[in-house]
Target: Insulinase family protein
Amino acid sequence: MITFTRTMRHTALLLPLALLAPQATAQDGMVTSAPQALQTGDETPWIYIDSDVPRDREWLWGAMDNGLRYATRANGVPPNQISIRVRIDAGSLHEKDSERGFAHLLEHLTFRESKYLGQAEAIPTWQRLGATFGSDTNAETSPTHTVYKLDLPNATPAKVEESFKLISGMIREPVLSAENLAAEIPIVLAEKRERGGPAVRVGDKSRETYFAGQLLGVRSPIGTEETLKAATAEAMQAFHDRWYRPENTVISVAGDFDPMQFAGLIEQYFGDWQGKGPLTPAPDFGDPVAPPGADPDNPIGEVAVMVEPDLQRTFSYIYLRPWRQVKDTVAYNEGRLADSLAIAIIQRRLEARARAGGSFLYAGISEDKVSRSANLTSISFTPLTADWRKALAEVRGIVADAKMTPPTQEEIDREAAEYDSIFVSLVEQRAVMAGSALADEVVSAVDIREAVAAPETFLEVFRSMKDKVTPQEILERTRNLLKGDVIRAAYVTPAIGEATEADITAALQEEVVPASDVRLAAKSISFDELPPVGEPGTILSQRPLGILGIERVEFANGTRALLWSNKAEPGRVAVRMRFGAGLRAFDSDQSAYIGLGESALVGSGQGELGQEELDRITTGRVMGFNVEITDSEFVFAAQTRDADLDDQLYLFANKLSDPRWDPNPVLRSKAAQTLSYAGYATSPGAVLQRDLDYFVTDQDGRYKTADTDDLAAATPDGFREVWAPLLEQGEIEVVIFGDFDQARTIETLRKTLGALPPRKPIPVKALASVPSFPNVDSETIVRKHRGDANQAAAVVAWPTGGGVAGLPESRQLEILVSLFNNRLVDAMRERAGASYSPTVFSNWPVDLSTGGRITALAQLEPEDVPVFFAAADSIARDLAANPPSADELERATEPLKQQITRASTGNLFWLYQVQGSSANPSRLYSLRTLRSDYSETTPERMQALAQRYLASRPGWRMAIIPEGQELATTVRDISPAPVARVPAQTTGR
Model:
């Protein structure tokens, strides 16, 4: 498959100088030698060998004599940032039995100490350069590779060169000492523990079943406790020497510099790198093979039944074929696109049956190439009841019909229109493709051994082939996708004795009856045929807002609009419509209808449009309809484009003027939430997700996750009774930022939101109903989970404030939180080895006068819950008693400053800043200090905030521990902090 890349130099927003200071020219002063390894002229770049896919000319490609390959390009999204990716062709599949987990452990050690970075220096160094730990500096280990990532903001020539130097030292010469191993292994084991639980057990067993006989079945990147604890410095060095070589390395760089200079720096710092000893070939990952005696027409292989009492039923069966290196040609990609159409047709039929009240809640089909180990087609579904046989027969019947009879041309055209709109949007938005995403795409292409192409190429390929795709060709491709050398299956159930492996095998061998009634008949629908919202409204006022060129328009019915038409993000339009009172509007016993509203309100339809009609009328369009319920408002939000903006606004307005109350989406959402509720008990993290907001708001029922009793009592009639009046309440503000025709949009607003009848007022009771903070004099709240016995979580929270007037202070609190977070990571991860990713964050509700809080939390072992409480309390007291050092402040403020600088080049950032200002202009006053509030402070200011919010009252505490255990009270000793600090977070597993 082609991996798409697209970009063009970003046109930054024209911002007032009071908001953002000008940045230095990126490449001034950088001196590098001319790159010698560039592949120019008629030479075929390394990634296009054996491919006739047109080259993406914005990339420069280089192949060095030592075997290292690279790709560089200029990109200004966001301005003055560079993104570096170093990919090593070694993951968990490259490990020996005694090395399980070594690829991932080596990733951690690489960040701990290296040639140019002493112990404890890596993360602080990047923070001082403005890179945020965990997002700007990161790494991932997968079965097939290890990738090191850096997104460097505010990149000056000196910073760029220093970054290449530091990264080269990390990759080439990490310090793999016994001391570093002793410090790092507990952190990796903490990561392993925190990611454990039923979902991981199911994933491991499923992978073992699906890839039986292959390395992928037994090679999880996290490794095993036994092999990790047995790791030695010598063994780690041997693994590094074997795989970390220039021949196994690809570097991709995209950023706001001359790509020739990137190439020169790569050659400067990696050109003399030589591997140790002869090159070791990659191991044979193996092929999927059917067991002896399997039916060649239906080769059922390994089957697993997993009983997990707190997980909902899930059934999957997959067709596996060997993975083989392909020649990534245009013809090959045309075939892949036709496969995608075939898959999409089946997927839509499965979804239609589920919506109509089938025996399964969800069903999906996908085709993928997995870790260079198999090419597979996967079919999975969630049975509504214990009768999995009925659901399996229904799903297999839909799939069998697709194998037997060609689809209609209308079905093909419908899916082709969806793909065409996606590809057109990619072309339109190539100018705002982030450099980080472009660098990632090269890495992904290398991983699957395929090429990259510009979005225009892909659109051209698709349009040249889609009209040639016939129903008969889709039928043949469907049949090929639903074949395999072996078929394997896994069933997860909460009930013992519900199924055996023999039952599953027998069911898959049964003759299937094709379901010919699932084909979706053509039914043309057009927005032009829909009734108007009402009489077009009258514009009362239209004037500049006074910032950024935003225009404020007010209509006679009370609707207000904030419009900013700009070319900063070509092809993109963000729409956010706010109304009502949000969570304040509900009674404490209506939690079920809050959750159902977020999931079923759109699906319940509007006017003449049910869920199927909504799908049809938006086919081939870039439209959305997200429902958000915040503390203080309801939100309809969408990302669209100018060509679809008028109809997007019609959908929003029509939902308010003529809501439809189809029961099926409500019943389906109710079933989904009921089936998944038990899953909240499976781990400390899941319990936090379920219970934290409820308990930290003093058990306010509006913040409760609806339980099975709440859901059982909810009905479609009750849903309508609750939501119908809420859709009529509160004046409307719509904010539209992006690349659109402003004059036309104002006229559209007159016919849509401006044409609505006057809104009913929000009840005074709702406006006054704000969440409370619990009494901190109470004992620690203890909740129990049913997951692994070595898992727990702990939370400490302090109340802060809320409201527009406090916005400058809320931004300063982000600096305090960053200081707190750095110290908590050092205490809980480095000194205690107790938690992999402790975190501290701040909430400040702008539209409420109260309700804000600072929250610190961590997942850890049950006996370390008191350690966390003691560490959090100690840090809070110290921040209040002693001002932070200048270096601490720099490490906190520089990343925050760079985050704001980067985010402020996008429309969504400013949309969130100015929303609400049409009714409350005071929201705009603090914009003048936005950047300085996040980046400029004093040690004394931080100490004063800590005294006010962290030391003025004890923190509220919550602990989540395993069932059958009691909360520990003894705090184990935390030894003095070692010199090591935080390694990069591992992602992508």
User: Anything to note?
Assistant: The radius of gyration is 29 Å.
